[in-house]
Amino acid sequence: MMQTIAQINNVTYRYKGASENSLDGVSLTIQEGETLLLCGASGSGKTSVIRLLNGLIPHYYHGDMTGDVTVNRLNIAKTQLYELAGVVGTVFQNPRSQFFSVDTDGEIVFGPENIGLDPKEIKSRKEIIAKQMKLDKLLGRSLFELSGGEKQRIACASVAALLPEIILLDEPSSNLDMEAIQMLHEIICDWKRQGKTIIISEHRLWYLNDLIDRVVYMDKGRIAQEWNTKDFAMLSNDETRQLGLRPTSINLHYLELLSNQGHTACSQEYISDGIFLKDFYFSYYHKPYILRRKKFSASDGDALSLCISELAIPKGKVTAVIGSNGTGKSTFLRCICGLERDCTGVIVSDGKEYRKRRRIGFSYMVMQDVNHQLFTDSVEKEVLLSMKENDIKRCHEILNKLGLLGYKDTHPMALSGGQKQRVAIASAIAAGAELLLFDEPTSGLDYAHMEKVGKLLRQLTESGCTVLVSTHDPEFIEQCCDYTLRIKKGRLFSFEERES
Fold first, then answer.
1. Of 12, 89, 252, 387, most Cβ neighbours within 10 A?
2. How do strand 483-488 and strand 352-355 relate by DSSP bridges?
3. End-to-end C-alpha distance for the chain, whole angstroms
């Protein structure tokens, strides 16, 4: 008979300084060895439940709390965080936020060392975990040179090395490509075979169908519904959409497309009305120049991080830039908009050439973390900053079109993530950019917010802009992208019109 390993009993919680409760009367019983999925829209309370179980609430995130939480017979409120280290392990959405070392070996053994295990036991655990999780090729490497998927594997290994009975995963697939998601699936499957209790907070649902035992749906800080695996898998796309969830299954074509199955390198078909890129060459690996900057060319071969001699981007369309983690998608976007100064290349549009600095005015990149490109103390000033000449009337027209006029005097950092993204887009429009670049704009977004991003990109193309968007998101590609452009090791691998 299964035993209860964790119990949340009628918990209501409000973060310090918040105006509303994040959790409202939540009660949840978790059985030993169970794999539980927490789903729901952003802000529904999923992450707060994770923080209850690992003790971050109330020991790190302070606020007003009623009710109690018991994990493995320990009262969380009366148990110090370090005492939970061997009981509960957490893999966060961004693995960089939980790294303490600079190399992979040091990160894997950090936890066991921190709790004072014998050196022989630490070495033994590292060897066992490395073998179980097939980490041979990742050992002895710098964390800074790993791809997103590789970092996630090391984060999982560092948690597993503590041999916790309960493993919590908070949006673990949000930044991963298809290959990395498959590896994550195998890791969770292995933990399940070991009898671990696993709680997963996730927006992407399709890769978990054969792993989960129970699904808990949260809405506005409450547990609104529960399903068993079979009943949850039978929900239609319309039903999940009404709940604000992504589909439980996705089109096989897009899985194959993003997994690079059945594709071979090809040349691009002729496009008459397009934005043309020529001689885009760049390398991260070159000797520092003293008097003259090195000019890259195709003859540099394998030393190039980006090597695209010709590319035509269809005007007024949304083109998805796809490819594995670490294959050069972000580098490609950064080179186009001029963020990589050493990149050669010219953009040709309507007979005009844009080189080096002129590329900056022609294109505009909205980064994955838009906090890096917001500089002023009001939304209005942020948009005016991008204009060659201040034009309050045009500024307000742009803000109104993007639903931001009511926030014109608000500090950008006080806005939600989606609103910040729209401020960055408003700046791009104000700057007169014809080519808009987006780097993983739907990473970690629920269905409703993903849909809003898709509609916004469509509106941008309807107003005459051309959009390039780097993504691993099959649902997003199906919703709004016209073409897919595959980058592989910094080279153009394929360019296809999306199947309708």
1. 89
2. unpaired
3. 50
SS3 139: coil
Q: Provide the 3-class DSSP secondary structure of residue 53.
A: helix
Angle between helix 417-430 and 447-462 (nearest 10): 10
Side chain identity at 9, as an amino acid letter? Answer: N
Q: Distance between alpha carbon 379 and the CA centroid of its chain, in Å?
A: 25
Looking at the DSSP assignment, which residues form a beta bridge with residue 29? 7
Question: What single letter denotes the amino acid at residue 26?
Answer: V
Residue that is written with structure tokens 């999923």 in the block: 46
- At 48 the pLDDT is 93
Q: In this structure, are strands 197-201 and 166-170 parallel, antiparallel, or unpaired?
A: parallel
Nearest CA-CA partner of 220 in 12, 53, 73? 12
* 54: Cβ contacts below 8 Å, ≥ 6 apart: 84, 88, 90, 168
Token pair in block for residue 33: 């060895």
Asked if omega into 58 is within 30° of 0 (cis), the reply is: yes
How far is residue 189's CA from residue 35's CA, in Å, rounded to a whole number?
10
Sheet with 352-355, side-by-side order of all strands: 306-314, 274-282, 346-349, 352-355
- 40 — phi, psi (to 5°)? 145, 165
- Of 347, 336, 211, 363, whose CA–CA distance to 282 is shortest? 336
pTM value is 0.82
- Amino acid occupying residue 73: R
Do 173 and 202 meet the contact criterion of CB atoms below 8 Å apart?
A: yes
Residue type present at position 218: M
For 283-366, strand residue ranges (E) read 306-314, 318-322, 346-349, 352-355, 363-366
- 342 vs 395: CA distance, rounded Å: 33
Given a contact cutoff of 8 angstroms between Cβ atoms, the answer to whether 345 and 281 are in contact is yes
Q: Give the pLDDT confidence of 210-253 residue by residue, as tens digits.
A: 999 999 999 999 999 999 999 998 899 899 989 989 988 877 77
Q: Chain-centre distance of CA 126, in angstroms?
A: 28
**Whether residue 264 has pLDDT greater than 50:** no
**Whether the Cβ atoms of residue 180 and residue 325 lie closer than 8 Å to each other:** yes
